[in-house]
């Protein structure tokens, strides 16, 4: 009995020490001999990629890299040759455009005999069939990392040599004919111009691509944000090859799937069916969101509170977020009004298990100078309630910095156009899920079946602006 007990204790200790459960696997695959008929095909959600001879894996949960493993293909099967079990944190928010960066390395001597190596980056969810791949184009268009400079050096003739070469070409041409001489002079001038301006980058011996390669990937092309690759890079130093994959958001979604959100506001909420737009954007990224709205045309939060229009809904609970909105509230008295009635709503919102959020709007088109005051008003109200701040008005401004002609106002120069409401919905998406909306489709299907077709170029601008505003002004609250 005692040996069995000791064995059980040993098992528990080993299990406790190795209790990390990886959620994600990030791989760099290398086809060393550039032959798809040899090597191994790594199994996983990314599908078969034949001909891989070496792979470098990073296993992670949502907060840290637990271990890195180097494997080589030996007679058709992967064989571990190196393992590093030191835990390293993921660089949350430190990747491309606020994404999360996963970094790991390979000793350079594993590939030291090769001048260039083809790379494939793979991100996989281990418990779900979700994966993303970068560098999977046809042979010749895959990512390649140059380890040595294998370009032909271009000899330098120096200042005097270039001038003498140009004169020699001219003299030889003139001996044959005036026309040939003119052509030779032209050639000489071209040579002199090249000498003066320097050789083009692709012809220089110190090619910037040697020792470094990077690529961007379309965002939001994979529903699972933890494997949605936004950017990859590899770089070489004297001892290591360093790899990095930036994913949209490896942390848990800030909002659970199927969460309910309640809007309390006025026509700046119900114009263009903004709540339904938000639902549609969430669906595009593989999420399920349910919205309800209680609105009064031209109403302020005071009107909702005194009229008790939202009290029953708040008391019934079931909402994760309650989004509050009234007019621009840029003047001192209206700022005080917004803050007072936000503070009155906040305890009722929290009593129902929800978190308050303030949806910053915008001034009318004749009062553009008041944007800062609108932001301050809503931001201070959110701070008072320890609530979320949704900087939708700042999304408009960030979008106008890219294209000042974007039609975000509607016909009355105060209410939003469809694009303006879409920009506000993107701001909400960025705050609710802490994920970039860049790359989501420009075509939205609303809950009632209506289809909203937006210009793809404008959509990319406001998506980028939404994430920019989130990074600068957004706040999750508590």
Distance between the termini: 52 Å
What is the 3D form?
elongated
Instruction: Report mean pLDDT, rounded to a whole number.
Output: 86
Q: Please report the number of helical segments.
A: 12
Radius of gyration (CA) equals: 30 Å
Strand elements, count: 19
Range of helix content? 25-40%
CATH topology of the largest domain: Rossmann fold
The low-confidence runs, each spanning 5 or more residues with pLDDT under 50, are: 1-19, 152-157, 183-187, 189-208
Q: What is the CATH superfamily of the largest domain?
A: SGNH hydrolase
Main pleated sheet: 8 strands, antiparallel
Q: Strand content of the residues, in percent?
A: 15-25%
State the CATH class of the largest domain: Alpha Beta
- Structural class computed from helices and strand pairing: alpha+beta
CATH architecture of the largest domain: 3-Layer(aba) Sandwich
Q: How many structural domains? A: 3
